[in-house]
Amino acid sequence: MAATTIVPAEATSARDDPITICAISCLAWILAAVSHEGIGHALVALLTGTQTGVLSTVAWSSAYDSRLVAAGGTLVNLIEAGVLWLALRSLKSASPRLRLFLCLGFAFNLFTGTGYFLFSGAFDFGDWAQVIARTHPHWLWRFLLVTVGAAAYYGAVRAVAVGVVRYVGVLPSEYLRLRKVNLTTYFSAIVLSVAGALMNPLGFKLVLESALPAAAGANCAFIWLRYYIPRGTLPVRDSDSISRGYAWIAMAAVLSLVFVFVLGRGITLNR
């Protein structure tokens, strides 16, 4: 393991560029959201029966319905989280910006994937409520979703906390830096998700039913992530700051505009 350079929290935090963190957060959220809706729901539906449907930032709508389509979004998020985790562990020498992107992509996918079990079981609403619809005894299936979801989400929080420290290089002692990265990430996802949902013809209904539960609810662990860093977790290399990355900012600006103003309005896909 490389030696870890301990620097004052204020000094490292001050060197982290919030605009770049925001840009990387937006890109990571777009990846997770498009994977969930576009691959997990839309592509699965088109491959398994539907002829046409409408894809947006927070929903897939078509006449065709199946348990596989409902489950597909979560399953794709979990698979993608695994791929990103492997990439994050393998690319220890990558730039701090790339490592942050991989870690946040891992976090968004994992929080969405595990959080959906808990959300659907507790409120009997959403993708996994459709998966267990018409099952008997229904209360038992909901109980299992809540139980599995709570355990899986707890594990997800611990895994993301390890990723932020070990691979991004944010030390547990750097409280100000952790707060800057986590809160910037959290609110960037909320703003982008709500903006996309508001462009949809269903408007505020999708904000309440999809955008806020997905962005604010599933990712709420970012608010208290620092309390779940396993004791003794240290970076695998020196703690590097997240410096200004103009390419990341430009890419985020372009894709965020497409995400909100094109995908947000909904696009029709045909088989």
Question: What does this protein structure show overall?
Answer:
It is a single chain. With 271 residues, this protein is mainly alpha-helical. The chain has one domain (20-270). The chain has ten helices and three strands. A three-stranded antiparallel β-sheet has the order 2-1-3, with helices on one face. A hairpin with a 4-residue loop joins strand 1 and strand 2 (60-62). The chain is globular, with a radius of gyration of 19 Å. The protein starts with 8 loop residues before the first helix and ends with a strand. Residues 1-7 have low confidence and may be disordered.
Topology of helices and strands:
Layout: H1 9-15, H2 18-48, E1 52-55, E2 60-62, H3 67-90, H4 96-123, H5 127-131, H6 138-168, H7 175-198, H8 204-217, H9 221-224, H10 246-263, E3 267-270
Antiparallel strand pairs: 1-2, 1-3
Helix pairs in contact: 1-7, 2-3, 2-4, 2-7, 2-10, 3-4, 4-6, 4-8, 7-8, 7-10
